[in-house]
Fold:
Amino acid sequence: MRTILIIDDEPNIREVLVSYLQREQYRTLEAADGKEALEHLRDERIDLIILDLLLPDMEGEQLCARIRSFSPVPILMLTAKSAASSRLKGFSSGADDYVLKPFDPREVLARVKAILRRAGDDAQLLSDVTVYRHGALVIHSGKHEVTCYGQAVGLTPNEYKLLVLLAKYPGRNFSREELVERILGYDYDGDIRTIDQHVKNLRHKIEEDPKQPKFIITVYGFGYRFGGEDT
Structure:
């Protein structure tokens, strides 16, 4: 049974989400603030987080970034902020998807299912261990782990899927539209440039110099390709 942590200071919102999620056989945990959420994450195995951006003790983006410092758990943000800059800030802190308030709980449920499905798809795109550029980058597909220059790298589920997809086809040019469909899902209806933010985050984690990337190469006016030579 998948466990979903709902972080929201409004009891009525938590109650509605719990009702819909439990009806679909998900186990639910609740937190009214960031401190309580971090305690759950310390004590429980969480499969997905639903996170409100407005919490009484810290901003949702701040909590998201803290969670990302130690966990790749998928995060679905709830927000009343519709501006693209707010969404990009959330993606930059590590969110996997957004739902705007007020929301239809059926949409939240659909996005939860889609995120969990994507997190489980393409788990074995590569061989168990694939080495690039003489060990500079190593992808352990069986363990869902990545090391860069000998150091373990913590990637979000979307960052990991993006890296594995590109690495499976070195030298192939992927359009932004295709990457959005493959990484964020066919039902994603947000800004296509969101994929650029995921690439930016990924580069900061795996590139020696993100401004002169060796692995994730920009194809100007089109998209991206993988430039690592498989050794």
